[in-house]
Structure formats: structure tokens, C-alpha cells
Amino acid sequence: MNNCIENILEVNDIELHYRDWGGSGQEIILLHGLASTSRIWDFVAPILSDKFRVIALDLRGHGLSSKPSTGYDFKSILEDVNNFIIKVNFKNPIIVGHSWGGMVALSYGAKYTYCIKGLCLIDGGTTEISSSGIKYTDMKKKFTPPDFSQTHVDEFIKRIHLKINSSNNLLLDDIILSNFNIEDNLIKGAKLSLDNHMKIIKSIWSYKPTDIYKYIKAPVLLMPARQDNGNSAIIDKSFKNIGINDAINSLDFVKLIWLDNSIHDVPLQRPELLANNIISQFDSGFFNT
User: Fold this and answer.
1) Using N-to-C axis directions, what is the helix angle for 100-111 and 194-205, rounded to 10°?
2) Rounded to two decimals, what is the model's pTM?
3) Which of the listed CATH numbers 3.40.50.2300, 3.20.10.10, 3.40.50.1820, 3.30.70.980 matches domain 5-132+192-288?
4) For the segment 14-59, what is each residue's pLDDT rounded down to a tens digit?
């Protein structure tokens, strides 16, 4: 497995930080979700880099990238990603996006149709929240992040271990804590400011994947997470499942692989499953469809 190198590129008058995992062959760009960082791929990227050329990016406002007060609409984020891809000289990458990163990946595939080999959406990218019947004001409340300011690091880590455990909990802790500014063992706040977080929430409200599926020409691998084996009637009737069905019925080249017994943060919980599915689908020729 390769060790990563951390770098920064100036793109669109801001600095974008990324973790370069090296490797060779097919190029892969890993995009994290809202209020996360490139570190969420620290378990997945080493596995992928044994077969692929892999980079994990901190999107605008996140991680160690610049945190301007503007540019959190999809148009600006896509320009960031596209110019970043050009600067690292990736020619035809597979874009892998988790959660909100899946929305970014799908939107990128629609705008830069012939610049990608394929898309891989990890528990995200297909849900159209504005069509769910929820009001925007309620959606804002639901997606306003909790304030962990002044929480002691040890207390916070205990909460994390109630949800996720890893064979390498020290690395897991480091990954989770990378989302926050920390001083004297106290969390001082999230690296993504609340103001910028809510600007992204506003852009998510206007996100309509059903309007852009027709522009996607590359193969799309859907890997949503669920915490049972699919026998639950609740799963079948969920709004999440409606979005997945819309994607399957609308995209030209699509494959669905449910990640059973998995939580939303599956890159941390089950990295081997996630990476091995991507590898097996690549080896099967799916991305050459």
C-alpha cells in the first residue's frame, strides 16, 4: 500500500489541499461529504492505490483548503474540481463521491460529460430533498450541524466509538478529529464554518438529479448503505429508495450494489467492502461500458 503525500494547489484564487496516494493506472478522484474532509478516505485510498492512481481532495471550505465566504453553489464547486483535475493532469478519471460529494460527482458528470471514465456514488447523489415534501425551513433545521464547541476530545471520541469501531481506532480518531479545530484538548469548532455549511445546505435544496440524469453518458456505480439486508418494507418505501429507483430508471449505464449492514459513513466503517467493490467493477469492465 502507498503512503500519501499532502499538497496544495492554487485553483480559482483559492488553495485546495489534497492527499496524493500515488499508484498507477486508472485515475481516481475521491470527494468527501458535507462537513467532512479528504481524511475520510484514509482507510479506502491505500487499498485503491494498489491498483489505481488515487487523489483525495478537500473541497472548498473544508479540511485544509481555503475557506472563502463565497462559492458554495454547485457551479463554483464544479469549477474548482475541474480546474483541479486539469492542474494535476488527470485525463479521464473515475470520480468517487460520498454523500454530498456524490451530488458533486454526479453534477460534474453532467457538466463535463466526456471528461470522465465513470462515476461512483457512495450513499449519496440520488436524493432530491426538495421533492420530499419537507419545507425548506424544516430542512434547514434538520441539517444544521450540532455545536461541539468546548467538548473535550476524550468525551467526543467516546461518542464516536459508540457508532463506529475500527481495527485501527487511533487512525479513526485522527480522521474524525480532522473535521475540527482543536485547542487544549477542547473542540473549538468545525473547520467548515456554520455560515458556509448553511450555504451548501441551500445549494442542496436546489439540487435536482432528475434534471441532469439525461446528460450523464459515463457508467454510474451506485453504492448506497443500508443497515439491514433489504428485507424491510420501510427500506423499500423510503425516500432514499425512491431516488435510487429514479436513477436506475433514468441513467443509460448504471449498476446498483447495496452495502448491507453499513452506516452512512461506510468509508470509515467498511473500507475493504467499499474499495473491493470498486475494484471488482473496474475489473469486470463496467466502466468500459
Assistant:
1) 50
2) 0.95
3) 3.40.50.1820
4) 999 999 999 999 999 999 999 999 999 999 999 999 999 999 999 9
